[in-house]
């Protein structure tokens, strides 16, 4: 895989494994699995399930690792969720819900297809460089699933958190605060009505963030993105892709291409339940055979 192609491949593969992981946030079976261990309400399941590989951590660590959430929103969930379910119970629930959701989307596919996809994705996940990537590291350290769909979901979780860690590291170099990043993106290609409540920022925090973005040169006085901001964020996205390219370099061009073929029908089915405005950044669905912008 040529060096100039690595970032494009990393982005293509993200659009395929991200939907596999994201069923845990949007499928009713995933919600039911969290509720079965006492985690009622969407955000209890979200924070407990995603934070569980870290152990029974408190809000500050999760606020830092997840990056885009208002501290007050995280504090409403943590550490109180650990009185409802242990991290071990939350881990079992998220894997159970993920597997049950994937089973619904993949029952028409041959078993051999799922086994090959799971094994290749798990091999890619086993090649992640975890240095400096806390969420990627703790997910990579979890036991490999015994069954194909468990291996597939867990590998997708590891790869998406590994990529997310790299993205956060790149964002930190911009000097923007989390609320500023979210507010800026909502002036570019996302919706404030959806993202502000989903990340827990108040109107005052949001307005103040936009004012700071004007002062920093990321927004014009009319609150439109500036050329400087657009170019800087392009650099951030390229850095994110470079930091996520290692597993595909290790897997090799031919096997990565084969995995892409195997994941495409699975990802297409999984994306049917992901809201178009979901704050995970997936582009509009189309063929993954060409590089896709985030």
Overview of the molecule:
This is SalK. It comes from Micromonospora marina. By secondary structure, the protein is an all-alpha fold. It has one domain (3-173, 236-273). The chain has 15 helices and no strands. It has helices at residues 3-26, 28-36, 42-51, 59-66, 71-77, 87-106, 111-125, 134-140, 148-172, 178-185, 192-199, 203-216, 227-243, 246-251, 253-270. The longest helix is centred in the middle third of the chain and has 25 residues, at 148-172. The chain starts with a helix and ends in a 24-residue tail after the last helix. Residues 287-294 have low confidence and may be disordered.
Please state the CA-atom Rg, rounded to the nearest Å. 19 Å
| Count of β-strands | 0
Mean of pLDDT: 93
Number of domains: 1
Note the main sheet. none
Query: What percent of the residues sit in helical stretches (DSSP H or I)?
Result: 55-70%
User: Unreliable segments (pLDDT under 50, ≥5 consecutive)?
Assistant: 287-294
Distance between the termini: 21 Å
- Shape verdict: globular
Structural class: mainly alpha
Q: What's the oligomerization state?
A: single chain
| Secondary-structure element order, N to C | HHHHHHHHHHHHHHH
> Number of helical segments?
15
Strand content: under 5%
Structural topology:
Elements: H1 3-26, H2 28-36, H3 42-51, H4 59-66, H5 71-77, H6 87-106, H7 111-125, H8 134-140, H9 148-172, H10 178-185, H11 192-199, H12 203-216, H13 227-243, H14 246-251, H15 253-270
Helix pairs in contact: 1-2, 1-6, 1-9, 1-13, 1-15, 2-6, 3-6, 4-5, 6-9, 7-9, 7-15, 8-9, 9-13, 10-12
